[in-house]
Design brief:
The chain has 317 residues and is an all-alpha fold. 76% of the residues lie in helices and 0% in strands. It has a domain of 221 residues: MetI-like (MetI-like fold, Orthogonal Bundle), CATH 1.10.3720.10. It is built from 13 helices and no strands. The longest helix has 36 residues.
């Protein structure tokens, strides 16, 4: 286990370096001048040149990158080019909301997808299969932003059960926090549940045709034991992969949901930074996303070994 973790952590070093270089290069080739964007189109050229010099934008690109990367290694992601706020503070303010929304979305997705996938596989070719598959397909087909607006109209405007938008930190008011996060989590989780349910159905159908399942049934084990103790556990490997990819995507891809429900999240921070050409905010945010995605992939690899002991963490199977 220790050797596996050390090897994986060492492999992340060139990956993070590559991500930082690509992000830095792409932001520099985008049209527009950050100094001009900050000062406005009517600013005199002298003021723009002075700001570029103060921000270090007139230095060679490799010097800019080395300066930023060296500071990032010390935990300093720089300051916002727009208002001078430290990037680490902005991330610390925005990241908790996105992490909470991602976790709640994953929980909603799992609670819906696992029963649907199992019911569809066990009742293959019968009405449970058709019903559960139709629900999963509906979750995939309905855009989550449209579903979110419907939720606002129904539960916030008409029934007035939940707040239409906004965010309250969990530490300040847990009840209001959960009320505010329920609709966005369900709206996004329904779509993610459709993907996971279809993965689980296909994987479980394949496992149910395996020899060890026929052996377990021949020994007289109850069908419930065969399904949940033997089949489902072996069918979770591709589901864990799909869920890991979903969580990794949610960490930086909830900007539409955050915009609809006015949640000050991490995704909106990145998008706002791109529109305002706030290079340091975008670079630091993308670097944090890369670290979180690597951490999620590491957890997925560890779950493989827990679900299937035949998968060795040392490269042996």
């Amino acid at each position: 286990m220790a050797r596996f973790l050390i090897r994986r952590l060492l492999l992340t070093i060139p990956l993070i370096l590559l991500v930082s270089v690509i992000t830095f290069a792409l932001l520099r080739v985008l049209p527009g001048d950050p100094a001009r964007t900050i000062l406005g189109p009517e600013a005199p050229p002298e003021a723009v040149a002075a700001l570029r010099e103060r921000l270090g934008l007139n230095r060679p690109l490799h010097q800019q990158y080395l300066s930023w990367a060296g500071a990032a290694l010390r935990g300093d992601l720089g300051e916002s080019l727009v208002d001078g706020t430290p990037v680490t503070r902005l991330i610390a303010q925005r990241l908790p909301a996105t992490l909470e929304l991602a976790v709640l979305t994953f929980l909603v997705s799992s609670l819906i997808a696992v029963p649907l996938g199992i019911a569809a596989a066990v009742g293959r070719g019968r009405w449970p299969d058709f019903f559960c598959s139709a629900l999963a397909l509906a979750g995939l087909s309905v855009p989550h932003f449209w579903l979110g607006m419907l939720f606002i109209l129904l539960f916030a405007v008409r029934l007035q059960w939940l707040p239409a938008s906004g965010y309250v930190p969990f530490a300040e008011d847990p009840v209001q926090n959960l009320k505010a996060m329920l609709m966005p989590a369900v709206a996004t989780g329904l779509r993610e549940a459709g993907v996971v349910a279809r993965f689980l159905r296909s994987s479980l159908l394949e496992v149910l045709r395996a020899d060890f399942i026929r052996t377990a049934r021949a020994k007289g084990l109850a069908e419930r034991v065969v399904i949940f103790r033997h089949a489902v556990r072996n069918a979770l490997i591709p589901v864990v992969t799909a869920s890991g990819l979903q969580v990794a995507g949610l960490l930086g891809g909830l900007v539409i949901t955050e915009t609809i429900f006015i949640i000050p999240g991490f995704g909106r921070l990145i998008v706002d930074g791109i529109f305002t050409r706030d290079l340091t905010v975008v670079q630091g945010s993308v670097l944090v996303v890369a670290l979180m995605v690597i951490a999620v992939n590491l957890v997925v690899d560890l779950l493989y070994a827990l679900l299937d002991p035949r998968i060795g963490l040392g490269g042996e199977s």
